[in-house]
Amino acid sequence: MFSPLTTPAFFPESDTIPEPDPTFVQPQSPESPSPSLPSSPPITTPQTEPTASSPPPFPPIPVPPSPPSSSQPIALRKAPRAPVKPVKYNDYVMHQGTTNSKVSYPMVACLSYEQLSNNYRKYVLAVESTVIPGSFEEAVKEEYWRRAMDLELEALEANHNWDLVPRHAHQKVIGNRWVYNIKFQTDGTIERYKAD
Predict the structure, then answer these.
(1) In this structure, what DSSP letter does residue 196 have?
(2) Which residues, 6+ apart, have CB-to-CB distance to 70 below 8 Å?
(3) Which of 36, 44, 156, 169 qualifies as a cystine partner to 161, CB 3.0-4.6 A?
(4) Is residue 181 part of a domain?
(5) Is 152 a member of any domain?
(6) Residues with Cβ < 8 Å from 159, sequence gap 6 or more?
(7) Overall pTM surpassing 0.85 (yes/no)
């Protein structure tokens, strides 16, 4: 049960540590047992009696008077400003979710394979389930990609796209990067693997 007299107040997002609330009263309830801690021997320090010639080491600190308790509830801190959409999203149409919506991700409602015909659904699933390598190291592991690269090199040589000449010391070699793709038939089966 919450009571402002028996529950300490917490102040989130505060720059300073709040002083202890003087109106907080530690509840003393006989019904609630206090947790038992393992007993340890008391720590003793040697006591020296102050002599008449030496003043006490620390002067007594006066206790400030406690403010009168008020019957008004403690006001909760409000956020200083309302959340604002970042400027970089001004050119985008963003979904404004409602709290009573059952769909967590509204995009699912408009992107679905159920609206596609059976043949087209097979085609789309075949295209989405294939993995196209992003590098030569990935492609060279599979036989069908190695065969596609061989066919491309044979076609380039047959068309006389270049002439092989000895390299001179002052010339730089032009690099090449393979781009891989898969061509599909209309029913979703793979027509061929293509390497360019």
Answers:
(1) -
(2) none
(3) 156
(4) yes
(5) yes
(6) none
(7) no
41 inside domain:
no
Residue 29 to residue 33: CA distance in whole angstroms: 8
CA distance 117 to 16: 64
- List the beta strands (DSSP E) in the chain: 180-184, 190-195
Q: Is 100 helix (H, G, I), strand (E, B) or coil?
A: coil
In Å, how far are 43, 53, 56, 58, 59 from 49, measured between CA atoms?
19, 11, 10, 14, 16
- Please answer whether residues 180 and 195 qualify as being in contact, where contact means their C-beta atoms are separated by less than 8 angstroms: yes
Q: State which residues form the domain around 158.
A: 113-162+176-195
Distance between CA atoms of residues 183 and 195, nearest Å: 11
For residue 122, is it within any domain? yes
Write out 156-176 in H/E/C secondary structure. Answer: HHHCCCCCCCCCCCCCCCCCC
> Domains in the chain: how many in total?
1
